[in-house]
Design goal:
The protein has 9 helices and 4 strands. By secondary structure, it is an alpha+beta fold. The C terminus is likely disordered.
Amino acid sequence: MKTITAIEAQKKNPNRVNICLDGEFAFGLSRLSAAWLRVGQTLSPEKIASLQEADAREWVMQKALFFLGFRARSEREMRDYLLKQSAPPALLEETLARLKENHLLNDEDFARNWVENRSVFRPRGRRALQMELRRKGLSENDIAAALPGPEQETSLALEAARRYAQKTRGLAAQPWAEFRVKVGGFLTRRGFSYQQAAEACRQVWNEVSHHTGNEDVTDEYLD
């Protein structure tokens, strides 16, 4: 048995304390884990090991919650992050399970929310979205369930073309050929098909042509 001789707040982290046993530093604990400890209390080796294990478990969970504080994460992202933080394998798996049980980690929701966010702020085609979600470690089933359908993808291409034309200075005043190359290239880089890009270019060109005096284009000018 060892006796607690001091419980001192850590200088660099006020949320943790140093535990001294028999006059010597023994280990650190979070204030939460150390809340019931007091000077003069005796601890068995088993109790010391239990305290340290509970502290390590809490440490890993706090790391995970910190990572989630910026945005939602996929399970692969969380696993990779905790590995970089040197989380013990057993505690890593336990933490992932706890996060999923508490609905803080859900790949199906992550994929759906990722696509919705992209659709609102930075529209992309299915190919680009698929590549992004694969890089996040999502399963093919979760990816397929989240991707936009053909009609929605066509609408996204049109929305992306409008935004690009509006924010690119002087683009609307350029000849059709240059407009098509620039807007079409932008759309294909965003993962839209050639046909979707061509149709969106035509429609947006016809919308802006009324303000610039340029002639409308029809389907025969798409190629």
